[in-house]
Amino acid sequence: QGKQKKARKYAVMKRMISLRDERIKEKDRAKAPAKKKEDPSAIKEREVPQHPSCLFFQYNTQLGPPYHILVDTNFINFSIKAKLDLVQSMMDCLYAKCIPCITDCVMGEIEKLGQKYRVALRIAKDPRFERLPCMHKGTYADDCLVQRVTQHKCYIVATVDKELKRRIRKIPGVPIMYISRHR
Question: Is the pTM of this model over 0.70?
Fold first, then answer.
């Protein structure tokens, strides 16, 4: 005589009393969750950001000569290493008038680099460069450039930094200028 196998019952759950059951005392009973008031300024999860009106299909209509070019710290340093005149090489690249713009964050980053990069600081203080004031907290230049480019699509970003280029490529309608093979 062998042991009889007992078939297991699947999807059987112990019966539990609901917390709202009448048999539970009033103090132990679960209260109905209060509804939260929706904040109209908060971004909704299902809300898709609307594309700016300047983007017609994938073409950015705000870009046109004279081009405003946001310059990054390493772009200035690489132009010095490649022995390029920054403004002239920009004009040769775009065949139009260029206005290089430099933010306060980038300027602060160049000043922090110290004595070794004094030539870059002198180039950044050139009167042909347009200074853009920053009103945000923190001085991380990459975040500043990405934020400015997302708000205003009228800039070309000049950088050699791979991480910054990767971040800017995700923003539609923003061209990137970089130095390769001493050009």
Answer: no
